[in-house]
Amino acid sequence: MATTSTAIKRGVVRHARSDAPLKAAIVGGIHEGFAPEKVRYPFMVYNLVAAPYAGLWGSRLIVALVDMMVFAENGVDASNVDQLILNAFDEAQLSVDGQTTLICRRVADIPGGPDTDSEGKKIYQIGGSYEIWTDQSL
Amino acid sequence: MASINADDLTLGILDAIEEGVRLGLEEIQMRAQKHAPVRDIFKHPRGRSRKQTSADVSSMSSSRSRVGSIGTGGPRRAYIGGAPHVMSARKAQQQGFFTTGTLPSRTGRRVEETTGSRTLHYVGKGVIRGRANSLAPVVSSPAGLIGSESFRHWAGPNVLEIGAIRSKGNKRFDLSSLLSARGRYEAFGAVKKNGARAGKGRAVHMSHGQETIGGRLRDGITIVGPFRNGPEIYGFVKAVAVDPDSKKQHNYATDQEFGTRHHKAQPFLRPGLLESANTITRVTDPSRDSRGRGLMQKALESAVRSGGSGVDVPFVLTATYVGPKSLSKDFWAALGKAHPKLGF
């Protein structure tokens, strides 16, 4: 059965949860795209940027670009968690339903300066873009 | 073997690559503009998501094509004071518009307003059932009664054709009632103490010589380059959008691309780049039938014409997109390996 980029997102979350140091560090949990206002810091946000398909002979290649960011109350925490995310995902073998992971690697850092939240606190946003290539037979 | 002017060949190939880079940048820009979010300023019928559907996009695209609008097929655009293609209602009728301009089935009390020799019919506030807080105007025109849905059908879901239907007295029909409360703020500014609007909202900006509501980010996606640095040819697609109310002149294109604590990311540049990868390969590959076909051959033929005559060309050059960072090294190495006599 063919699966889509949704399976890749599911694989990302599964992989993040399976990494004990990372899971312990992100107190506020893992969120897709946006976290509610009252979530505790630090937390992790992932977002699927694009996932174009490439049809091959008998198989389909999905090249997904996923942003993974951490929001924290200070820059050190943010950098530390970002490093944990890098450790977990760079050159990792993700378990994606119906697909075989070919590549999972960090391809860029995401620029982000400190922002202020609704209470006026500075919030640090640090992260990176990860390219995930998967293959599935059709 | 052909006698080739090596200098001409080098320059010709560089020209060809530059053209390919330019085409590639245009492709990325076009796709990024399609992905760029545009403010939604209109009311939507009850039960309908505010999010633009694919049906909206396609219907808008065809409608805009029909009226010859700028940016055909692009995201939604709203004009203040009349779109570039404003036409009289009679002309619009002659051209086959308003064919579905019928009075909505659920209508209520009419309000009539006479201007010159023409009477405009509005449906009074709050009397159309099935539509939340709607003023949903209906206008009598030479083409018949036209409701707001007909406007949308004709001009697309987010196009204000304010000048499209006007009375003889040149009194314009106020379509601000089609806007959501947020849309009115974005278009006409905040409400002042005396109840009047400030005039222009922050979403108003000049685009293609027209005052436009929304689309500042999309219009801020531009191409820089291509540039030459020795054998290296490169360019950028950049996005700049500054909120006029912002004292810090903050570029919110970054916020849209990567998201913030308060705002979910709506990436547009990187999807444009990723989706363009195959096309970029195609336009820069002269062996395929595309806009870039023959660029390399032309360079070669030109070099042959400069250096010799009446001979056959024994090889065909092909160009392949190998990534922005490795282009110069890999490309020139491959070229030199394939054709050592050229001396690259």
Account of the protein in words:
The complex is a heterodimer of chains A (138) and B (344). Chain A contains three helices and seven strands; from the N terminus they run ααββββαβββ. In chain A, strands 1, 2, 3, 4, 5, 6 and 7 form a seven-stranded mixed beta sheet that branches. Chain A has helices at residues 5-18, 20-25, 75-89; strands at 30-32, 43-50, 53-56, 59-72, 100-110, 115-116, 122-137. Chain A is 25% helix and 42% strand. Chain A has one domain (5-137): STM4215-like (2-Layer Sandwich), CATH 3.30.2000. The longest helix of chain A has 15 residues, at 75-89. Chain A has 138 residues and is α+β, with helices and mostly antiparallel strands. Chain B folds into two domains: 6-36 and 220-342, no CATH class; 54-214, no CATH class. Chain B has helices spanning 6-35, 54-67, 89-94, 148-155, 181-188, 216-219, 253-258, 269-283, 295-307, 327-338, and strands spanning 78-79, 110-115, 118-123, 138-141, 144-147, 204-207, 210-213, 221-229, 232-239. In chain B, strands 1-7-6 form a three-stranded antiparallel beta sheet. Chain B has a two-stranded antiparallel sheet with strand order 2-3. A two-stranded antiparallel ribbon of chain B has the order 4-5. In chain B, a hairpin with a 2-residue loop joins strand 8 (221-229) and strand 9. In chain B, helix 1 runs antiparallel to helix 8 (269-283) and helix 2 (54-67) packs across helix 4 (148-155). At the A-B interface, strand 2, strand 4 and strand 7 of A face helix 8 of B.
Features:
heterodimer, A: 138 residues, alpha+beta, STM4215-like, seven-stranded mixed sheet, B: 344 residues, 2 domains, three-stranded antiparallel sheet, 10 helices, 9 strands, 14% strand, elongated
